[in-house]
Amino acid sequence: MTVHKQESHEDLIQRSLDGELSNSGQRRLSELLASSDQARNAYDHLKKVDSLLSRAPMVDPPSDLAARVMAGLRARHHRAAPASISRLLDRISDALRAKPAYGISLGFALGVLVLLPMALQMPANSLDSATMSGTMTNGTHVSGVFEARPLSISSDLASGSCQALITLDQVTLVLNLETAAPMEIELEHDGTGPGLASVLVGSGTVGYMESQGRIVRLLHEGRNSYQFRFQREPGAILDFRLSLLQDGQIVFRETIPSLGQEH
Amino acid sequence: MSEHNDAACIARCLQGEIDAFEVLVRRYEKPLYNGCLRIVNNGEDARDVVQTVFIKAYENLTNYDPNRKFFSWIYRMMVNASLNHVEQRRPTSELDPRLASSALQPDESFASDRQSAQLQEALLQLQPEARVAVVLKYFGDLSYEELGFVLDIPPKTVKSRLYSARRHLCEIMSAQGMVIHDSA
């Protein structure tokens, strides 16, 4: 009986706060509040909290939010193009199988076109890059360069068909910290996939770490340059966020949005 | 919120018109941002989460059930993404009540008065599930049925959870001498 009575009180008060109480319900609530100081106290407090919450201000979102969303969408849409190119190449390849001689010639020509820029290390392979520069709360300078690029492109000439294949994409962050003070480096991305990152200090790899979800954390112990390499799904657009923490407090944070957008 | 307009925009998006999505972004960025901000308690984080949610919503439009309101659907995505974000974030940046009000101060419009900051401080001390119920009710302006859809629980459970959350808020605010002073 007691449980039922409490549920009934709760329901009455709840519906009153929601403005859904009928006349008879309102009478029952008034009787309840008149007969129980505890219930009246609880009701008054809930009413005040309800009023506070109802009057809580709505904040304007950042003025660039919509623009960022749309830029991200357009970039992803644009990046869908390689799949179309791949399908087109497949169709060409199928058509040329009927005439292998033409296929070998065309495959050779396309292979040269694809591989030559790589051999010359032309920036044509770079899908996107972004620089970052800022100051920590203690005045120390932080700088970094983000780059997203296809890791390899192969062309199969021997079979008489042609292929332009992006086998693996990677994103590299070179981070420079002009301080020897111990701190935690936290790098987070919003992508999916294996999330395996290698971290290099200077010229040597110090190890691989599997990110917990999409976050890689590393303890800074007086080195001044790091290189993070992330594997990403081919063509994926990634948002990265770098945070530096001292004693659990964020002393620097920077977001690099939409990395992977083709220029 | 215009459901008919939403449906028309979604139809255009599904036909490949990216620009049609901007109407939906402009229409819902404010309630989504505010809901997210109340959950994650950081303006920059809220911006990042909401941005990601919009993009994922666009990419998953083919899975959207037109029998539901678009707003409820995307709000559900926002809540899940916000909760994931809170889970991944280190506890020290979330739970220290001394940081709650000071963390809000850079966001001047958000903590323009002390009462608002106190309320947010109390909200942060609620368990995430309870906090989300309050945020949905007061900042999402959703019905109990829609709240049930977003939280994936029956509407009756929503009411119960919301009632408990409000009671807990009262206790927190009373215990800390915020606005409500218990005379009992």
How would you describe this protein?
- The complex is a heterodimer of chains A (263) and B (184).
- With 263 residues, chain A is an alpha+beta fold.
- Chain A is 38% helix and 32% strand.
- Chain A has six helices and twelve strands.
- In chain A, the strands form three sheets. Chain A has a six-stranded antiparallel sheet, with no helix packed on it. Chain A has a four-stranded antiparallel sheet with strand order 9-6-11-12. In chain A, strands 3-4 form a two-stranded antiparallel ribbon.
- Chain A starts with a helix and ends with a strand.
- The interface between A and B is large, with 45 and 54 residues.
The count of β-strands of chain B is 0
The major pleated sheet of chain B works out as: none
How can the largest sheet of chain A be summarized? 6 strands, antiparallel
The proportion of residues in beta strands of chain A is 25-35%
- Give the averaged pLDDT of chain B, no decimals: 80
Please give the oligomerization state of what you see. Answer: heterodimer
H and E order of chain A = HHHHHHEEEEEEEEEEEE
What gap, in angstroms, lies between the N and C termini of chain B?
43 Å
The Rg value of chain A, from CA coordinates, equals 30 Å
Beta-strand percentage range of chain B: under 5%
